[in-house]
Amino acid sequence: MDKPVNRPETLCMAPWTHTYLSPQTERRMCCASREDAQSFEQYIDTKQGSGEYTPITLHEHWNSDHMKSVRKRMMAGETLPECDVCNSKLLNTDVYRSYFNRLFGHKYNSIWDTTDDTGYTTMKPVSWDYRFSNLCNFKCRMCGDMLSSAWESEQRQHNMINWHDPKNNWMKPEVREEIKNFQSSQIEKEFSDAVESHQVEEVYWVGGEPLMYDQHWRYMKRIVDLGDGKNVYARYNTNLSRVNYRGINLYSDILSRLRDWQICASLDGTGQIGEYIRTGLRYQTWVEFFKEGLNYAQSRRQMRIDFTLTLPGMFEVENITRLSQDLNVDILAKVVFGLLRTSSLVH
Questions:
Q1: Cα dihedral sign for 199, 203, 209, 214?
Q2: pLDDT tens, residue by residue, 168-203
Q3: Do both 79 and 158 map to the same domain?
Q4: Which terminus of the chain faces fewer neighbouring Cβ atoms within 10 Å, N or C?
Q5: How many CB atoms are located within 10 Å of the residue 271 CB?
């Protein structure tokens, strides 16, 4: 396909650079894309999955008919329904498409050289959003079982799971075991291979709770040890309940050795109200860990408060604003996603 004179406005660099995997190993163009479910319906999917666990590898996904169609339509200047979250600014005004185009805009000419008329590309993913599980130590009011093991445990304990809904089949013991095996045998290998081959340029750590992931600490330490930190940009959406793990400090041993980084630390209220909204939060510990990060930050962009406005959080807007002023940091404000069928949040 010939490169147009003007860059298509709806073209996003993500389908040529980025790969996303949910905690249930559902693959998407990115975490904000609205696509048909593969096995288990995610929070903004457009079609319910079958409930049958049919995982696919990155190799199978990357140049699948769907991904080739996405690229082909973008290159033709079409507005994709899969990209409604960005098209209509449904989550916030600084859309994900803009982020990818800023970060990987220097690769724009390459997509025309490496992508044929079918949408098949020889470019490889360099940006990774792999959510290795729903492991999380919090039960936040706006979250749910697919993104929090604590919520999943609550559901199981009180027999609240609707086993007739195929969306919930991922919680069945036999399917859980299949997911675990696929994660350990396939997903770990995909990410490890990318790290060892110096293929990672950007990584987004979100969960679950990413700082509870052993994979986070293991792979980020490996990136640093390989000498690739100078080429890597890492961003986090974290509850910031942990900054040390097995002798490794997040700030001094990892982030300070990267090309660049950003932490969006979730906080939806201060003091007791914040601890009510985000069950598991220890507010003073959060403040302590956040201030530790400020000692390493080189710009305001690197440490931000991630504030999701909930009903009880409305009473905390003034306190959150005052905290941001005291810390001299910015707030990334979000609302609970309007398209949700359950109380989950798009990160």
A1: positive
A2: 999 999 999 999 999 999 999 999 999 999 999 999
A3: no
A4: N
A5: 12
Phi, psi of 314 (to 5 degrees): -60, -30
Q: For the CA atoms of 317, 318, 320, 321, what is the dihedral angle to 10 degrees?
A: 110
pLDDT digits (tens, 9 = 90+) for 88-141: 988 777 899 999 999 999 999 999 999 999 999 999 999 999 999 999 999 998
Quick one: tokens of 254?
Answer: 């990892």
pTM: 0.93
Alpha-carbon Rg for the chain in angstroms: 20
* Pair (78, 141) in one structural domain: no
- Domain of residue 267 covers 130-335
Task: Evaluate whether residue 8 is within a structural domain.
Answer: no
Burial of residue 297, with CB atoms counted within 10 A of its CB: 0-12 exposed, 13-18 middle, 19 or more buried: middle
25 token code pair? 């190993």
198, 226 contact by CB (below 8 A): yes
SS3 121: strand
Q: Is residue 275 part of a domain?
A: yes
Q: How far apart are CA 88 and CA 104, in angstroms?
A: 22
Q: Pick the last residue of a domain from 125, 155, 172.
A: 125
* DSSP secondary structure, 127-144, as one string: EEEE------S-EETT--
Tokens, residue 196: 């060892």
